[in-house]
Amino acid sequence: MNNWIQIKGVVKAGHGVASGKSSDPRFPAGTIAMQKACFQERGLSLDDYYLGTINLSIAPHQYKAKEAKYTFRQVKWSNNDPAEDFSFFDCRIIIGNQQAIKGLIYYPHPETKPEHFQPPDILEIMSSFIQNLHYGNEVIIEVNPQQIEIS
Description:
Blueprint: E1 5-12, H1 31-41, E2 54-57, E3 63-65, E4 70-75, E5 84-94, E6 101-108, E7 122-127, E8 138-143, E9 148-150
Antiparallel strand pairs: 1-2, 1-8, 2-7, 3-9, 4-5, 5-6, 5-8, 6-7
């Protein structure tokens, strides 16, 4: 892909449920760890990704999902919650002068998500574990405009 677009974002604290850092006993290892096998069965391996998300605010911009790289419907990953729809979009993260890190935008569809909603300026990003990344850090994210629209 040669048509990536770049936008600056700021790392923000999230709900902590994706990674298991919250104190919610329903998700002791995190929601993504619980969902991983469901995505694997449908063709997406998360083996190269940290099982949590980077919550990146692109305010004052917002995003709109267009054509996802992967979309999975009716994923029943929890015995306690209804099935959800998920999409994943290609992205790359650039921190300072470092080389771009391959990532995915993790998008639980809000219309099927029972709780833990995100503001419209927050992208949830999955990548390999990034040392020394902290809340308040500015990073550049690159996205494919055919997959996701930034406005």
